[in-house]
Protein backbone atom coordinates (compact mmCIF):
# COMPACT_ATOMS: atom_id res chain seq x y z
CA UNK A 1 0.00 0.00 0.00
CA UNK A 2 2.84 2.41 0.88
CA UNK A 3 4.75 1.53 -2.29
CA UNK A 4 1.86 2.43 -4.60
CA UNK A 5 0.22 5.20 -2.61
CA UNK A 6 -3.15 3.49 -2.93
CA UNK A 7 -5.66 3.13 -0.12
CA UNK A 8 -6.49 -0.03 1.80
CA UNK A 9 -10.07 0.36 0.62
CA UNK A 10 -8.95 0.37 -3.03
CA UNK A 11 -6.85 -2.76 -2.50
CA UNK A 12 -9.80 -4.55 -0.96
CA UNK A 13 -11.95 -3.45 -3.89
CA UNK A 14 -9.44 -4.83 -6.41
CA UNK A 15 -9.47 -8.07 -4.42
CA UNK A 16 -13.28 -8.39 -4.45
CA UNK A 17 -13.21 -7.84 -8.22
CA UNK A 18 -10.65 -10.63 -8.60
CA UNK A 19 -8.18 -8.29 -10.32
CA UNK A 20 -5.35 -8.10 -7.75
CA UNK A 21 -5.76 -11.03 -5.36
CA UNK A 22 -3.24 -11.62 -2.54
CA UNK A 23 -2.28 -15.01 -1.14
CA UNK A 24 -3.48 -15.85 2.35
CA UNK A 25 -0.77 -16.93 4.81
CA UNK A 26 -1.30 -19.46 7.58
CA UNK A 27 -1.76 -16.66 10.11
CA UNK A 28 -4.51 -15.11 7.97
CA UNK A 29 -2.44 -12.21 6.71
CA UNK A 30 -2.58 -11.20 3.06
CA UNK A 31 0.64 -11.55 1.06
CA UNK A 32 1.00 -9.66 -2.21
CA UNK A 33 3.47 -10.94 -4.79
CA UNK A 34 6.04 -8.37 -6.01
CA UNK A 35 4.20 -8.09 -9.36
CA UNK A 36 1.19 -6.67 -7.48
CA UNK A 37 2.95 -3.33 -7.14
CA UNK A 38 3.15 -2.94 -10.92
CA UNK A 39 -0.41 -4.19 -11.31
CA UNK A 40 -1.78 -1.59 -8.89
CA UNK A 41 0.28 1.14 -10.55
CA UNK A 42 -1.14 0.06 -13.92
CA UNK A 43 -4.70 0.25 -12.57
CA UNK A 44 -4.04 3.73 -11.20
CA UNK A 45 -2.55 4.95 -14.48
CA UNK A 46 -5.41 3.61 -16.62
CA UNK A 47 -8.22 4.78 -14.35
CA UNK A 48 -6.62 8.24 -14.43
CA UNK A 49 -7.18 8.12 -18.22
CA UNK A 50 -10.88 7.40 -17.77
CA UNK A 51 -10.98 3.58 -17.79
CA UNK A 52 -13.02 1.76 -15.20
CA UNK A 53 -11.31 -0.67 -12.84
CA UNK A 54 -12.97 -3.56 -14.69
CA UNK A 55 -11.55 -2.31 -18.00
CA UNK A 56 -8.02 -2.58 -16.58
CA UNK A 57 -8.33 -6.35 -16.08
CA UNK A 58 -6.63 -7.40 -19.38
CA UNK A 59 -3.61 -5.22 -18.57
CA UNK A 60 -3.28 -6.61 -15.04
CA UNK A 61 -3.57 -10.15 -16.36
CA UNK A 62 -0.96 -9.42 -19.01
CA UNK A 63 1.54 -8.47 -16.30
CA UNK A 64 0.62 -11.61 -14.34
CA UNK A 65 1.54 -13.69 -17.39
CA UNK A 66 5.08 -12.34 -17.18
CA UNK A 67 5.01 -9.72 -19.94
CA UNK A 68 7.27 -6.73 -19.43
CA UNK A 69 4.62 -4.22 -20.51
CA UNK A 70 0.93 -4.42 -19.69
CA UNK A 71 -0.06 -3.66 -23.28
CA UNK A 72 2.01 -6.43 -24.87
CA UNK A 73 -0.98 -8.80 -25.02
CA UNK A 74 -3.65 -8.85 -27.77
CA UNK A 75 -6.32 -8.61 -25.07
CA UNK A 76 -4.80 -5.31 -23.92
CA UNK A 77 -4.96 -3.87 -27.44
CA UNK A 78 -8.59 -4.97 -27.69
CA UNK A 79 -9.28 -3.27 -24.36
CA UNK A 80 -7.73 -0.05 -25.66
CA UNK A 81 -9.99 -0.15 -28.73
CA UNK A 82 -13.10 -0.91 -26.66
CA UNK A 83 -12.34 1.95 -24.26
CA UNK A 84 -11.80 4.38 -27.15
CA UNK A 85 -15.08 3.33 -28.78
CA UNK A 86 -16.90 3.77 -25.47
CA UNK A 87 -15.40 7.23 -24.98
CA UNK A 88 -16.24 8.24 -28.56
CA UNK A 89 -19.86 7.21 -28.00
CA UNK A 90 -19.96 9.25 -24.81
CA UNK A 91 -18.47 12.26 -26.60
CA UNK A 92 -21.14 12.01 -29.31
CA UNK A 93 -23.85 11.83 -26.67
CA UNK A 94 -22.42 14.85 -24.86
CA UNK A 95 -22.35 16.79 -28.15
CA UNK A 96 -26.02 15.97 -28.71
CA UNK A 97 -26.94 17.12 -25.19
CA UNK A 98 -24.84 20.26 -25.57
CA UNK A 99 -26.57 21.14 -28.85
CA UNK A 100 -29.99 20.64 -27.26
CA UNK A 101 -29.03 22.90 -24.35
CA UNK A 102 -27.68 25.51 -26.76
CA UNK A 103 -31.00 25.54 -28.63
CA UNK A 104 -32.89 25.92 -25.35
CA UNK A 105 -30.56 28.76 -24.36
CA UNK A 106 -31.02 30.60 -27.64
CA UNK A 107 -34.80 30.27 -27.48
CA UNK A 108 -35.03 31.37 -23.86
CA UNK A 109 -32.51 34.18 -24.22
CA UNK A 110 -34.15 35.57 -27.34
CA UNK A 111 -37.46 35.68 -25.48
CA UNK A 112 -36.14 37.16 -22.23
CA UNK A 113 -33.14 39.20 -23.38
CA UNK A 114 -33.43 40.59 -26.92
CA UNK A 115 -30.04 40.98 -28.52
CA UNK A 116 -28.49 38.03 -26.69
CA UNK A 117 -28.49 35.89 -29.83
CA UNK A 118 -26.22 38.40 -31.58
CA UNK A 119 -23.45 37.91 -29.02
CA UNK A 120 -20.56 35.84 -30.24
CA UNK A 121 -20.54 32.37 -28.74
CA UNK A 122 -17.34 30.46 -28.02
CA UNK A 123 -16.35 28.34 -30.99
CA UNK A 124 -15.32 24.70 -30.80
CA UNK A 125 -13.20 22.80 -33.28
CA UNK A 126 -15.23 21.56 -36.24
CA UNK A 127 -14.03 18.06 -35.42
CA UNK A 128 -16.12 18.35 -32.24
CA UNK A 129 -18.92 20.83 -33.01
CA UNK A 130 -21.18 20.09 -35.99
CA UNK A 131 -22.18 23.01 -38.19
CA UNK A 132 -25.66 24.30 -37.24
CA UNK A 133 -28.27 23.08 -39.71
CA UNK A 134 -29.56 26.58 -40.43
CA UNK A 135 -26.13 27.54 -41.76
CA UNK A 136 -26.37 24.83 -44.42
CA UNK A 137 -30.05 24.71 -45.39
CA UNK A 138 -30.99 27.05 -48.22
CA UNK A 139 -27.53 27.31 -49.74
CA UNK A 140 -27.26 26.82 -53.49
CA UNK A 141 -25.39 23.76 -54.69
CA UNK A 142 -22.32 25.04 -56.58
CA UNK A 143 -21.53 23.73 -60.09
CA UNK A 144 -18.79 21.43 -58.82
CA UNK A 145 -17.95 18.63 -61.26
CA UNK A 146 -16.87 15.35 -59.66
CA UNK A 147 -16.16 11.81 -60.83
CA UNK A 148 -18.40 8.91 -59.78
CA UNK A 149 -17.42 5.31 -59.15
CA UNK A 150 -18.88 4.28 -62.54
CA UNK A 151 -16.43 6.77 -64.16
CA UNK A 152 -19.24 9.14 -65.10
CA UNK A 153 -18.91 12.87 -64.49
CA UNK A 154 -21.51 14.51 -62.26
CA UNK A 155 -22.23 18.22 -61.99
CA UNK A 156 -23.57 18.61 -58.48
CA UNK A 157 -25.61 21.67 -59.45
CA UNK A 158 -27.61 19.44 -61.82
CA UNK A 159 -28.65 16.83 -59.26
CA UNK A 160 -32.35 15.96 -59.52
CA UNK A 161 -34.77 17.08 -56.83
CA UNK A 162 -34.98 14.97 -53.69
CA UNK A 163 -31.40 13.71 -54.03
CA UNK A 164 -29.71 12.50 -50.87
CA UNK A 165 -25.95 12.98 -50.57
CA UNK A 166 -24.38 11.48 -47.47
CA UNK A 167 -20.93 12.96 -46.92
CA UNK A 168 -18.44 10.99 -44.85
CA UNK A 169 -14.81 11.44 -43.76
CA UNK A 170 -12.97 8.25 -44.69
CA UNK A 171 -13.64 4.55 -45.15
CA UNK A 172 -11.12 1.86 -44.34
CA UNK A 173 -9.75 -0.76 -46.67
CA UNK A 174 -8.62 -4.27 -45.66
CA UNK A 175 -4.88 -4.29 -45.05
CA UNK A 176 -4.61 -0.49 -44.96
CA UNK A 177 -3.98 1.40 -41.75
CA UNK A 178 -6.32 4.22 -40.77
CA UNK A 179 -4.85 7.65 -39.96
CA UNK A 180 -3.05 7.93 -36.63
CA UNK A 181 -5.53 8.59 -33.81
CA UNK A 182 -8.54 7.88 -36.03
CA UNK A 183 -10.60 6.21 -33.30
CA UNK A 184 -10.12 9.16 -30.96
CA UNK A 185 -11.52 11.81 -33.35
CA UNK A 186 -15.16 12.53 -32.44
CA UNK A 187 -17.47 11.69 -35.31
CA UNK A 188 -14.80 10.10 -37.52
CA UNK A 189 -15.42 6.41 -36.99
CA UNK A 190 -18.35 4.60 -38.60
CA UNK A 191 -18.15 5.48 -42.32
CA UNK A 192 -18.32 1.90 -43.58
CA UNK A 193 -21.29 0.96 -41.40
CA UNK A 194 -23.01 4.18 -42.50
CA UNK A 195 -22.52 3.21 -46.16
CA UNK A 196 -23.91 -0.26 -45.38
CA UNK A 197 -26.92 1.38 -43.75
CA UNK A 198 -27.68 3.41 -46.88
CA UNK A 199 -27.18 0.25 -48.97
CA UNK A 200 -29.60 -1.78 -46.87
CA UNK A 201 -32.13 1.09 -46.74
CA UNK A 202 -31.76 2.08 -50.41
CA UNK A 203 -35.13 0.73 -51.52
CA UNK A 204 -36.84 2.26 -48.47
CA UNK A 205 -35.24 5.65 -49.21
CA UNK A 206 -36.53 5.64 -52.78
CA UNK A 207 -39.99 4.52 -51.70
CA UNK A 208 -40.03 7.26 -49.05
CA UNK A 209 -39.45 9.95 -51.68
CA UNK A 210 -35.75 10.18 -52.50
CA UNK A 211 -35.09 10.27 -56.26
CA UNK A 212 -31.42 9.36 -55.95
CA UNK A 213 -28.76 8.57 -53.34
CA UNK A 214 -25.04 9.35 -53.51
CA UNK A 215 -22.13 9.04 -51.12
CA UNK A 216 -19.35 11.65 -51.21
CA UNK A 217 -15.90 11.91 -49.66
CA UNK A 218 -12.43 13.26 -50.40
CA UNK A 219 -11.11 9.81 -51.29
CA UNK A 220 -10.07 9.05 -54.85
CA UNK A 221 -12.46 7.35 -57.25
CA UNK A 222 -10.27 4.22 -57.38
CA UNK A 223 -10.33 4.00 -53.59
CA UNK A 224 -14.08 4.47 -53.55
CA UNK A 225 -14.62 1.83 -56.27
CA UNK A 226 -12.98 -0.80 -54.07
CA UNK A 227 -15.45 0.02 -51.30
CA UNK A 228 -18.44 0.10 -53.66
CA UNK A 229 -17.51 -3.29 -55.11
CA UNK A 230 -16.73 -4.87 -51.74
CA UNK A 231 -19.95 -3.70 -50.12
CA UNK A 232 -22.15 -4.09 -53.21
CA UNK A 233 -23.41 -0.53 -53.05
CA UNK A 234 -26.46 0.14 -55.27
CA UNK A 235 -25.60 3.84 -55.57
CA UNK A 236 -22.60 5.83 -56.78
CA UNK A 237 -19.87 7.37 -54.65
CA UNK A 238 -18.52 10.80 -55.63
CA UNK A 239 -14.96 12.05 -55.16
CA UNK A 240 -14.38 15.66 -54.07
CA UNK A 241 -10.67 15.48 -53.30
CA UNK A 242 -10.26 19.28 -53.26
CA UNK A 243 -13.17 19.84 -50.82
CA UNK A 244 -14.82 22.17 -53.33
CA UNK A 245 -18.19 21.82 -51.60
CA UNK A 246 -16.88 22.70 -48.15
CA UNK A 247 -16.76 26.48 -48.52
CA UNK A 248 -19.94 27.18 -50.52
CA UNK A 249 -22.07 24.90 -48.32
CA UNK A 250 -20.36 25.64 -44.97
CA UNK A 251 -19.70 21.93 -44.49
CA UNK A 252 -17.78 20.80 -41.40
CA UNK A 253 -14.31 19.31 -41.81
CA UNK A 254 -12.01 17.33 -39.56
CA UNK A 255 -8.24 16.87 -39.49
CA UNK A 256 -6.73 13.41 -39.24
CA UNK A 257 -3.01 12.72 -39.38
CA UNK A 258 -2.38 15.86 -41.44
CA UNK A 259 -5.34 15.27 -43.80
CA UNK A 260 -8.35 17.57 -44.05
CA UNK A 261 -11.49 15.50 -44.51
CA UNK A 262 -15.20 16.15 -44.58
CA UNK A 263 -17.13 15.84 -41.35
CA UNK A 264 -20.17 13.58 -41.38
CA UNK A 265 -23.10 15.40 -43.03
CA UNK A 266 -26.13 14.38 -45.10
CA UNK A 267 -27.82 16.76 -47.55
CA UNK A 268 -31.23 16.60 -49.19
CA UNK A 269 -30.99 18.54 -52.45
CA UNK A 270 -34.18 20.29 -53.60
CA UNK A 271 -34.29 22.56 -56.67
CA UNK A 272 -30.56 23.14 -56.71
CA UNK A 273 -30.40 24.02 -53.01
CA UNK A 274 -29.97 22.28 -49.69
CA UNK A 275 -33.52 21.58 -48.63
CA UNK A 276 -32.60 19.79 -45.42
CA UNK A 277 -29.41 18.68 -43.71
CA UNK A 278 -28.27 16.33 -40.98
CA UNK A 279 -25.08 17.69 -39.37
CA UNK A 280 -25.13 15.84 -36.05
CA UNK A 281 -24.98 12.08 -36.63
CA UNK A 282 -23.95 10.31 -33.41
CA UNK A 283 -24.90 6.82 -34.64
CA UNK A 284 -23.73 6.34 -38.26
CA UNK A 285 -25.05 2.77 -38.43
CA UNK A 286 -28.60 3.98 -37.73
CA UNK A 287 -28.47 7.16 -39.79
CA UNK A 288 -30.05 5.81 -43.00
CA UNK A 289 -33.05 4.56 -41.02
CA UNK A 290 -33.28 8.02 -39.42
CA UNK A 291 -33.41 9.60 -42.89
CA UNK A 292 -36.10 7.14 -44.03
CA UNK A 293 -38.21 8.00 -41.00
CA UNK A 294 -37.79 11.73 -41.65
CA UNK A 295 -38.79 11.38 -45.33
CA UNK A 296 -41.91 9.41 -44.40
CA UNK A 297 -42.91 11.89 -41.72
CA UNK A 298 -42.32 14.84 -44.07
CA UNK A 299 -44.41 13.19 -46.78
CA UNK A 300 -47.29 12.84 -44.32
Quaternary organisation of the protein chains: single chain
Enumerate the spans where pLDDT stays under 50 for 5 or more consecutive residues.
115-129
How many structural domains? 2
Mean pLDDT reading: 85
Number of helices: 9
Shape: elongated
Outline:
With 300 residues, this protein is of the alpha+beta class. The chain contains 9 helices and 11 strands.
Task: Give an overview of the whole structure.
With 300 residues, the chain is of the alpha+beta class. It has two domains: 1-120, Multidrug-efflux Transporter Regulator, Chain: A, Domain 2 (Orthogonal Bundle), CATH 1.10.1660.10; 123-299, Glutaredoxin (3-Layer(aba) Sandwich), CATH 3.40.30.10. The chain has nine helices and eleven strands. A hairpin with a 2-residue loop joins strand 8 and strand 9. Helix 2 (35-48) packs antiparallel against helix 3 (57-64) and helix 5 runs parallel beside helix 9 (284-299). The longest helix has 39 residues, at 74-112. The termini are far apart. Residues 115-129 have low confidence and may be disordered.
